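hey can u check if this looks right to u? its 171 residues, i copy pasted from the old doc so theres a chance i mangled smth
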Amino acid sequence: LFQFCIYLVMDQPLLSGIASAASATQADAGATASVTMRNTPQSPVVLLIDDQPIVAESIRRLLLGEPDIQFHYCSDPQQAIPFAIKISPTVILQDLVMPDTDGLMLVKFFRNTPATKDIPVIVLSNRDEAMVKAESFSQGANDYLVKLPDPVELIARVRYHSTAYCNLVKR
């Protein structure tokens, strides 16, 4: 089973994008499929890191009504940091429980990497326990949402963290 990271335009189905990326990845291991994206100044750029394509499709659909939000998806947590450096997201949504990767450790890696240390990380998880949330914050997460969040809440948090990050970068 191969893993990959893909760029997506919000109005294109994720699952067909996954099929395209899968073909590209099979032809050239390590290839990244890409689609040209709209970009406006200070547009939120979201990177989702999750091992489940169905979750990526759900998040993509939750953000679909927001044409200025760019959505990127990475299914391989081992490629998350290089991919984040490549696309420069303004906010990272990250699963907590993934095969072969501790989500909390990935948060620490983001915080210890100079190019990603200030990018807001919102942990997405099925786990709703207070201790799990507290541990996420102690490892450097900026926010925590239980899957799958209400679209209004998700969009509000993405915009809030993205704006804060863009303002930080301007300084």
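The CA atoms of residues 27 and 76 lie 18 Å apart.
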